[in-house]
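Deliverable D2.4 — example input (structure tokens):
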């Protein structure tokens, strides 16, 4: 076996096989994707600077539908309506590149139309385009399948709201302003929603966790408690609070502030995307 064959087998085992077979992640591809994400953030930051886009509340609201669109598109793939090789485009991580390409194209179009005086505010055009994409995906899901698990799906939302409310009111009581900040508690909500979808999916319906780190902690918790996926709640808090604290207490110069805002947007995507996908899968019985 020559060096090229060895490299190819390595690439296939740790990267390609997971995409083709849509299997769980492994430590190698997880680390690689994390590095790619980190590098990509700097490229995205430069691109948004070039487009003169400010990552504020208005922009975050406008971009959120694209996260929902990407997640619902992923569930369409889970529903097996796409065939190879097209289906590979809608499997992680390729779907992230596809959704990003569509999102940045529509954002560029919206900004162009605003600058040409065709529309008043690019945020509205951009946001409504994302909503339209999401609606189309949801309509397609309903056309090819049916709602089979409304109660577990509703439970995910309820558990996410309850868990976030508990954290918020405890933070108010302790005057812990980090988690009473509107943006921060909103970011925490989507991650606790993700934790809720993992708990309901695994404990109620027999789904399994694909990601390496959560799987490790869930398996470890299984040695001590009857419902090991509950460990996702404290795990989310243990990761989220230090990260947000560091971001909110970093030097406040303009360049670093832009990077911090982008990192918070990435945190939103990393929580909302799996939470939405998991909930839609459960809802549709996929």
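Example output (designed residues):
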């Amino acid at each position: 076996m020559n060096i090229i064959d060895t490299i190819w087998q390595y690439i296939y085992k740790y990267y390609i096989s997971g995409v083709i077979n849509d299997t769980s992640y492994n430590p190698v591809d997880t680390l690689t994707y994390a590095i790619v994400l980190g590098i990509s953030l700097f490229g995205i930051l430069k691109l948004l600077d070039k487009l003169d886009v400010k990552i504020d509340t208005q922009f975050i609201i406008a971009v959120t539908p694209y996260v929902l669109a990407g997640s619902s598109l992923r569930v369409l793939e889970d529903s097996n309506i796409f065939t190879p090789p097209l289906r590979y485009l809608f499997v992680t991580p390729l779907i992230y590149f596809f959704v990003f390409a569509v999102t940045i194209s529509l954002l560029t179009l919206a900004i162009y139309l605003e600058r040409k005086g065709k529309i008043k505010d690019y945020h509205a055009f951009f946001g409504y385009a994302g909503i339209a994409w999401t609606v189309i995906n949801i309509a397609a899901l309903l056309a090819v399948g049916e709602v089979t698990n409304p109660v577990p799906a509703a439970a995910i939302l309820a558990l996410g709201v309850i868990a976030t409310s508990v954290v918020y009111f405890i933070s108010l009581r302790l005057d812990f302003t980090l988690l009473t900040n509107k943006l921060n508690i909103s970011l925490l909500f989507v991650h606790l929603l993700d934790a809720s979808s993992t708990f309901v999916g695994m404990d109620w319906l027999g789904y399994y966790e694909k990601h390496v780190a959560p799987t490790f902690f869930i398996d470890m918790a299984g040695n001590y408690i009857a419902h090991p996926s509950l460990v996702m709640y404290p795990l989310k808090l243990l990761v989220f609070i230090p990260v947000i604290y560091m971001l909110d207490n970093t030097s406040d110069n303009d360049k670093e502030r832009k990077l911090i805002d982008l990192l918070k947007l990435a945190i939103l995507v990393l929580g909302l995307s799996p939470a939405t996908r998991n909930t839609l899968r459960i809802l549709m019985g996929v």
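The chain has a mean pLDDT of 93.
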